Amino acid sequence: MKNNCRKMSAAEIFAALKEENISAEELAAELNIIFEDYFTGTVRLEDTAVTINFLNGQKFRIHVREEQ
User: Fold this and answer.
1) Digits of tens for pLDDT over the chain (68 positions)?
2) What is residue 39's three-state secondary structure?
3) If DSSP codes are grouped into helix, strand and coil, which group holds residue 35?
4) Model-level pTM?
């Protein structure tokens, strides 16, 4: 599995610690990185969704949406 997402920079981490807003796309990208590290299978980022295909054939799609 190849991770096509970039890691957060120190400035972005600092901004997150200061509780600045992040977009749904940014959160989905962070979840994609975590899922790639944790699960065995294919993990793919698509805008604000992460698709996971497990080796046993199960498929999941997780959508990220900011609540107002």
Assistant:
1) 455 556 666 667 777 677 778 889 988 998 999 999 999 999 999 999 999 999 999 999 999 999 98
2) coil
3) helix
4) 0.68
